[in-house]
Amino acid sequence: MADQKQLESFIGNSFRSVWALEVLQYLAINPAAKFSPDELITALRISDAVVSQSVENLSAAGLAVVDGKGRVALHEGNGEQQRLVRQAIDLYQKSPDKVRRLIVAQASPGVTAFADAFKLRKD
């Protein structure tokens, strides 16, 4: 099991949006399947732009693969990557706000630092 810091770093560095994590979660539920963008749009009820950006993000992070027909599948990766993916999905299911904050913090560290200055407690 990855420690908390490693998991938070993985989440912050691997996802540019919560939608990318939603897409990854869907792919992880169906690990042997390949999905067209239209299938992801229908299944997740998200826009074409969100699917495109999410798939691009996941591919760049090495978490998804796109075949020659544009179908997307989960990239199995090594054992450590599989554990981190599972733990990220589990944390997102248990504490979605925390995961959202981790993703936003990586995307805009200056804004996050400013907001943290006004927090009364840490999570």
Biggest β-sheet, characterized?
2 strands, antiparallel
Question: In percent, how much strand structure appears in the residues?
Answer: under 5%
Domains, number: 1
Described by the principal axes of the CA atoms, the overall outline is globular
Tell me the radius of gyration: 15 Å
Structural class: mainly alpha
Task: For the structure shown, list the relevant keywords.
123 residues, mainly alpha, two-stranded antiparallel ribbon
Secondary-structure topology with pairs:
Blueprint: H1 4-14, H2 18-29, H3 37-44, H4 48-60, E1 64-66, E2 72-74, H5 79-94, H6 96-107, H7 109-116
Antiparallel strand pairs: 1-2
What does this structure look like?
This protein is mostly helical. It has a single domain, classed as Orthogonal Bundle (Arc Repressor Mutant, subunit A), CATH 1.10.10.10. The chain has helices at residues 4-14, 18-29, 37-44, 48-60, 79-94, 96-107, 109-116; strands at residues 64-66, 72-74. It has a two-stranded antiparallel sheet with strand order 1-2. The protein starts with a helix and ends in a 7-residue tail after the last helix. The model has no long low-confidence stretch (mean pLDDT 89).
